[in-house]
Amino acid sequence: MPGSCAQPLIQGIQVLLQGKVAELRAAMTEDFSLGVALEPMIVQQHLNKNLVGLMEHLRQLPVALHFSGHWPSPVFDIKAVSISPTNVILTWNSSDPAASEYKCAVKSEMEKETISVVHHRWCNITDLHPATSYVFAITPGIDNKTWGDPKVVNVITGKMIGSQGGCDLRGWSRPWVPELLEATDLEPIPVSNLSVVNTDLRKVTLTWSNDNDTASCRLLLESLGSHEASIQDLVANISDLKPGFKYSINPYHLKPNETKGASLSTKGGLNANDTEGSQAGSPTAPVHQEFPSSGQQSRVTEVLLVGLKPGTRYNATVYSQAANGTEGQPQTKEFRTSLPLYAPQVFDITVVNISATSLILTWKINDSDPSSVYTYKIDVVGEMHSFNGIFGEPHAIISGLRSSTFYSIRVRPFLDGTEGTPGFLQVYTREFMRSSRSPFLLSCYMPGPDAGPPGPVSDFRVTMVSTREIGLAWSSNDTESFKMCITQEGAGKSWVETTTNRSITIGGLFPGAKYCFEIFPQGPNGTEGASQTVCNRTGSASKLRDLLKGIPQMKCTPSAVSDIRVVDVTTTEMELEWQNPDNASEYVYHLVIEPQHGSNPTSTSDKVITLRGLIPGTLYNITISPEVEHVWGHSTSIAQYTRPSNVSNIDVSTNTTEATLSWQNFDDASPTYSYRLLIVKFGDASNATLVTDVGITEATVTELMPGSSYTVEIFAQVGGVMESLEPGRKSFCTDPASVASFDCEVVPKEPALVLRWTCPPGANAGFELEVSSGAWDNATQLESCSSENDTEYRTEVTYLNFSTSYNISITTVSCGKMAAPTQNTCTTGITDPPPPDESPNITSVSHNSVKVKFSGFEASHGPIKAYAVILTTGEAGHPSADVLKYTYEDFKKGASDTYVTYLVRTEEKGRSQSLSEVLKYEIDVGNESTTLGYYNGKLEPLGSYRACVAGFTNITFHPQNNGLIDGAESYVSFSRYSEAVSLPQDPGRASTTVLALVLWCFAPSGHRRPAAYMPPSDLQEGCCAQLSSPRS
């Protein structure tokens, strides 16, 4: 500014500020940024002592001085402290305290001019050509982009050294630079590539690159709180971080700085190399050290921060440090830990203590570390009044209640602005008693007469007003407890504060807004006295402007916006709203929307905007800058992802207990997505959740139930915090489990099979039973069964053939799917063989034997095991199994006229009879042979005999009667009896009889004696008559 313009300006300031120093000072404490267009050198020379004192006070206040009428002084003492073939480092000095940035321009005869801007008094110019003359120009600048005059210096880069002794020396380092920096106290080059590599619920990895001049680094980590509550509960100062090392650090294990806002030093922080006094496993020591394969030590530092709080914003500032401790310009990175995937839920609300007018509550939240992430809003509803409050910890003291009153209490958790599931409690306050007796619950002690309410407060007044706070005070002799209701006029917003003091400061107010304060004295028995009310308006942003009106070139910078909130977000749109602390309506808000590539500026005069045409699943950094009267305020930024698009083309392949799923997402940002899978079993309230790694579009879900119906919902996730609006859904069934094995049981004397098996695990809709034998095949659908308690399934297969092998297959069916069949071969049982149509053929062989011929029985009811030949001298009735117990001896004794004379066992023939075979048998009866317990004795001459045959599919013998058949336990049927056959006379016995008869006839009658072989008497007489008659 020309000197001729300074004097009128100074005189104007003196006139305007005369008598208003105190008022100006009070106004400037109200958190405004004031831009004053003053020439500081002239002010220092011409202002009187009082004004100089005021200016000194202004410097101590948070006021930004902009010298809009001043250009900075040129730099001087430019030096090239390092020169290499491709690199030059310049330093310089400046006597102008207003200079805050510098243009570094470099140009050669063969190259175009390049310009870079730095904020410190040195610059590092790279990518130069060897042995080339360059002109470097340094131009100082101030915040309003006013640039001074440049100063130039000529520098020739170093020559490239050729190969010597087989070593190719094409480049060389600057080993003297650290010593030079140490000797000259120059700032080291800042770190570069400060990045957040990994973000999780409670851990984050930071990496950065270090210049060769950097001896170590200092990390300043500050928590900025969650979106719901911006509370700074951590300031960790971590020093001595060496290049090339990896560290694992829990910043919450460090001792915090003594006071908020105190100067940051290594005191109370962590020295990474100072392990003395550290416990084993503490984060003070590096995890390991890395060296690149080239042999030069890596210049990348990696710090894993653990033990962080979910959903919390942090600011990481890294300072490079020279060997002498001089620090370079800081590099800053803000990040936020991920939020849990589940909604918060309050449970187990407990009343720790209760009295007539207050109670202490505690509760639990379904997260292990909710202390700095969650806020809780408590709604208290009584019979006559209600109120609410906000708390940052899972416990609260609720006072100002009425005695002997029923209250309903609701505790609502909030996580990053999202309300979770509340918890509820109902409780009675105790009765207030003035005697020494202990208070009892209402149900235990009836209340006595009410005490009178306290009198109203007096001298209720406003003691202090600023843009954000109003101080109040009052007097009272009746009570020690007060409740105050604060209401903002026109906003419909009110809340309650309680105190036991006689003064209070209400903060968190809006500038320029009117508030009314109503105070109620609280009686000891829950009664309230009459209220008193006072109203007042907070300070306005225009107040300071009015005080400074008329000062040339003096402007006020608008306050930065606050409480930027994402109201709604979709795949391509985002609705934002924010607050204006100045409560001014004439502001214009400039927004810069920056995705990963490019930026898009826009402006609005409203405090809400909807951004459209965005890219799904993309992180946008949105910067909002207020502007009024062409003066821009400080910027405020927020980072927000758009939602990913829904997944599609879900494909499922299954076995009995697993499902392999694959899907697609066609967003450009899909390589950065992870996916959350929610698997829900049909008919079951339980579910399972699976989260994939980034970029993975397939997953295998295990431990499923066979044959069961499931639905999978797949949500696309980006950044660990933003999900697709709707999931992709797919229903599927696992394969049913096969029957492990089954048993076959025959049914005695029935053509049927009983099948038994254990129900397979999981669910089923039934079974398919297939029975086949040869060309015959039959399939049957069976009902389902449950696998609970190892339930056994039983079914009977009927209408089969006796003694037949069947191929049986059992297949589990569920959801239209069929398991692998379980197979077995089973044979049906046997029964009595069918009786033959023909009777046996019996022929006489001699006077004491016969021959019996018969055909084998049909084996359709089972293989024929034996035949028994039965003789009878009785009638030709139907034989029964009872005759099988009689033998030849029984017959001879007269015990039975029927007996078993011979037993034929088919096994003795060396082969079994097939169904189609009909064997012929011929038995000699009376040959005195023995088969088992049966004797084949001689027959009686002149006797009449019939024969039948018994056929056995199962023959059982009496255990007590050796070799005799147990007819009741045997499977037997009988043929019909044959025709009777009469045996002839014994030939030897017939000749003896004739000789005896002749001798008898010719013997004198007195000497006749009966012979041993004499015919009957009538026959004797006939024979004798013929012998005595004369021959003709």
UniProtKB/TrEMBL annotation:
PROSITE patterns: FN3. Residues 258-296 are annotated as: Disordered. InterPro entries: FN3_dom, FN3_sf, Ig-like_fold, PTPRJ_TM, RTP_Phos/Ushers. It comes from the Eukaryota. Pfam families: fn3, PTP_tm. Residues 260-282 have a biased composition (Polar residues). Residues 74-161, 345-435, 456-541, 643-737, 738-834 form the Fibronectin type-III domain. Its EC number is 3.1.3.48. This is protein-tyrosine-phosphatase. It comes from Saguinus oedipus (Cotton-top tamarin).
